[in-house]
Specification:
Elements: E1 2-5, E2 13-17, E3 35-40, E4 51-52, H1 67-77, H2 82-90, E5 94-98, E6 106-108, E7 114-119, H3 122-125, E8 132-136, H4 138-143, E9 150-153, E10 161-163, H5 165-172, H6 176-184
Parallel strand pairs: 7-9
Antiparallel strand pairs: 1-2, 2-3, 3-4, 5-7, 5-8, 6-7, 9-10
Helix pairs in contact: 1-2, 2-6
Length: about 210
């Protein structure tokens, strides 16, 4: 379920809710821990890149923790195409492991290939030992990606995936016609609803 926050006017978002969360009573406000993440909504109606919620924990521990994680699982199963994964990667912020001196941390994938390490959300980040982290979009990942180095997504998770550096660079450089083709590959879902959401006010607030 996707719901836009009707918080203060200067802070408008689309929120992605955990589909496993169910209210105990009609009209219950979802707790913030059940918010997977958000897309910022600008005044002109444009939508920014997805940002995972660091406080989110899936109701079902086997559930995907964010859109990229969900697409990785679908892609590994053969239920989604690489062009769909490209589109979601372009529209998401991720957490990149850093080595503590401003450079990306480089490790090895399970098949022994040097890789920079990316976590798509906090639950995946918690599995990774890293001196430092930075929130980055795909262009920033590409700008710091060394030659002959690939990208390892969510090591130790249910869908650990190594993407080649060339694939990541090509994804960041996609043209308008390629983006249009990728968007048409998503089929329309009939069980997605958009609902207003208002955080509960803290005690003593007006």
């Amino acid at each position: 379920m996707t719901s836009p926050a009707e918080a203060p006017e200067e802070d408008s978002f689309f929120l992605l809710m955990d589909p496993e969360w169910l209210p105990e009573h009609e009209g219950d406000t979802p707790p913030f821990e059940s918010v997977v993440g958000l897309w910022p909504l600008a005044g002109d109606g444009s939508v920014g890149r997805f940002r995972s919620n660091p406080q989110y924990r899936p109701v079902n521990e086997n559930s995907p923790s964010d859109p990229v994680d969900a697409l990785l699982r679908l892609t590994v199963r053969g239920d989604a195409g690489m062009e769909q994964l490209q589109l979601v990667l372009r529209d998401s912020l991720v957490d990149q492991a850093m080595n503590g001196d401003g450079r990306p941390l480089i490790g090895k994938s399970p098949d022994g290939v040097p890789c920079v390490v990316i976590a798509t959300s906090t639950p995946h980040r918690e599995r990774i030992a890293s001196p430092d982290w930075r929130r980055a979009d795909l262009d920033e990942v590409v700008a710091a990606l060394p030659d002959q180095v690939d990208v390892l997504l969510n090591p130790g998770g249910p869908a650990t995936v190594r993407l080649t550096g060339d694939f990541i660079r090509a994804t960041a450089a996609m043209k308008d016609d390629e983006l249009t083709a990728a968007r048409t590959s998503f089929r329309s879902e009939g069980d997605i609803s958009v609902e207003p959401w208002q955080p509960e006010q803290t005690e003593g607030s007006n």
